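$ ./design --mode recover --in tokens.txt
reading tokens...
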């Protein structure tokens, strides 16, 4: 858990705006709308989206 989130919990503050620390980011630009699961609910190639989602599992 990030330091900010831990401090907010210790102070019993709301966790809005806190997030886990990420070591790696993958930015993908694709045209059109996407759903809640952007990799598989978008115009991105379905096989590629599924492969990326599987690779991200547990990260």
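writing sequence...
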């Amino acid at each position: 858990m990030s330091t900010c989130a831990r401090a907010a919990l210790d102070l019993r503050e709301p966790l809005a705006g806190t997030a886990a620390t990420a070591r790696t980011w993958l930015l993908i630009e694709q045209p059109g709308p996407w759903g809640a699961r952007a990799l598989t609910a978008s115009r991105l190639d379905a096989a590629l989206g599924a492969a990326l989602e599987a690779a991200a599992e547990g990260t």
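exit 0
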